C-alpha cells in the first residue's frame, strides 16, 4: 500500500523551527518538570529536573536549528537539550554539564552529550563527561532511542555506554527517502539515496532502503540484535507510520533477524519534502535485547478472508449490470471532482490542504480505470481497482479507501444483498483505525450511511443520515488527525473535509 503520493508541507512556518528561543519558552509549558537555563554565551538550554536523582548515565542532546524531533517531547531519559543556530553559537558538553550543575541535577554516573553534526566522533572531554557527534537528526534520534532501550547495566555505566556508542559510530548505516514533486511516468516519484525512482508500493520502497542499509552488515561476529530506527520526515500520517513499521517488521522477520525497532518524527524546515529515514546498527546482545514478536489478534479472525482474496472463477451471489454500476460510479466520481475546491477550502482551514486534491485525483483514477472494465463482475473489478489506487491515491484517505474497498470486494462474492457487504467492509475497516462515530472523520459520514442502508434498504434515507453526520462534524471537536492540534474555535462551523468528500461521492451515486 502506498505511503503518500504527493508532497505536502506541514506546519513548518507556523512552528517557527528556526527560533530556538521560542521553543525554550514553550517546553516548560508542555512539560512542567523542565526549566530553561543559559550557557555562558547566552544560548538557551532546557534541563529536566525530574532526572535529578537518576541512577543512570545522564544523556543530553544538541540538535540543529530548524530541525525538531518528537524525541525531545517523548523521551524521558534526556536530562538536557539545546539547539545550535551557527558555529559561533556552538554549545559544548561543558556548557550542558554546567547547566545541569546549576539546576542541581547530579551526574554521578557520568554525562554523555550527543550532537547532530556532519560527522561522527567521540571525545572524552574530562572524567565523567563524553561528547559524541553523529551525522544528522536521524542518527541523533537513533542514539537517544538506543540508550533508552539498552539494558539496565549499560545505562548505569559510563564505560559500557561509551562502548555502545563506539559500536554505533563504527557500524551504523542509514538512508533517507523523500517524495519528489515530479512524477515518474504515471507514478509518484521518490528519491532513494540521492536518485529518483518510481514509487510502486510501500513494500518495494522500504525493502529497497533496507537492502541498502543492511548490505554492510551481512557478516557479524557473535550474536547481535539489529537496532533499527525509522523516522518519519515532516509528518506522515499515523496510518502511514503504521505501514512503514509493518513493512520493516515483515522484512526483518523474513530475513530471520533479531531486532529492536524504535521510531520518531522529524520536522525539517530546510526541506519541506515528506518521507522517511532508516538507521540500522548491529548491537551485541550484551547491550541490547531483541523485541518479542507481538501477537496478531487479527490473524486468526481474518485468515479465511485473506485466503479468499485470490481471484475466483465462480460468480458472485449478488448480480450486477455493467450499465448501472458504471453510471453510479461515474456520477459519484464526477461529484467529487466538482467539489474539489470546497473540500480543499475546508482542509486548508482545518488540515494541511491536500484532502481535496487527493480525493479528486483518486476519483479521476477510478474513472480512468473503469473505462475498459466489465463492471458486471464487480468484486473482481474492485479488487483490481484497489491495486491501482494503492499506487495512485496517497495519504490517510487513500489507505482507508483501499482497506474498505478491498474488504468490500471480498464480501461481495458471498453477500446476499449489497448492504450486507457494505456492513462487513465497514466492520473490517474499523479494525484498522481508532476513529469512531463522533471523532470528526470520514466515519461520521460512512457509518450513518451504511448502518441506515443495512437497516432500511433505502439509499435516500441512508444519504440523509450521512448528510446529518457530516453537518454534525461542524460542531465536533477533532480527536484524530491534523485537526486535533487546532483550537476548537478553528474547526467550529467547518465540516470535516474527508467526511464532506465522501458525502459528495455518495450524493452522486445515490441520485440514480
**What gross morphology would you assign?**
elongated
In terms of DSSP E residues, the strand content is: 15-25%
Portion in helices: 40-55%
End-to-end distance: 32 Å
Structural class: alpha/beta
Low-confidence stretches: 1-13, 297-310
Question: How many distinct beta strands?
Answer: 14
- Looking across the biggest beta sheet, what order are the strands in? 1-2-5-3-6-8-7
Mean pLDDT: 85
Q: Number of helix segments? A: 20
Compute the CA-based radius of gyration: 26 Å
Describe the structure.
It is a single chain. The protein is of the alpha/beta class. The chain is built from 20 helices and 14 strands. The protein is elongated, with a radius of gyration of 26 Å.
Briefly say what this structure is.
By secondary structure, the chain is α/β, with parallel strands linked by helices. It has helices spanning 12-15, 20-30, 71-74, 93-102, 136-149, 152-155, 158-171, 202-214, 238-254, 297-307, 322-338, 340-350, 355-370, 378-392, 395-411, 418-430, 443-456, 459-472, 488-491, 497-510, and strands at residues 34-38, 44-48, 58-64, 67-69, 78-84, 111-117, 121-126, 129-135, 173-179, 189-192, 195-198, 224-233, 259-268, 275-284.
Name some characteristics of this structure.
512 residues; alpha/beta; seven-stranded mixed β-sheet; elongated; disordered N terminus
Write the layout of secondary structure elements.
Elements: H1 12-15, H2 20-30, E1 34-38, E2 44-48, E3 58-64, E4 67-69, H3 71-74, E5 78-84, H4 93-102, E6 111-117, E7 121-126, E8 129-135, H5 136-149, H6 152-155, H7 158-171, E9 173-179, E10 189-192, E11 195-198, H8 202-214, E12 224-233, H9 238-254, E13 259-268, E14 275-284, H10 297-307, H11 322-338, H12 340-350, H13 355-370, H14 378-392, H15 395-411, H16 418-430, H17 443-456, H18 459-472, H19 488-491, H20 497-510
Parallel strand pairs: 3-5, 3-6, 6-8, 12-13
Antiparallel strand pairs: 1-2, 2-5, 4-13, 7-8, 9-10, 9-14, 10-11, 12-14
Helix pairs in contact: 8-9, 11-13, 11-20, 12-13, 12-20, 13-14, 14-15, 15-16, 16-17, 17-18, 17-20, 18-20
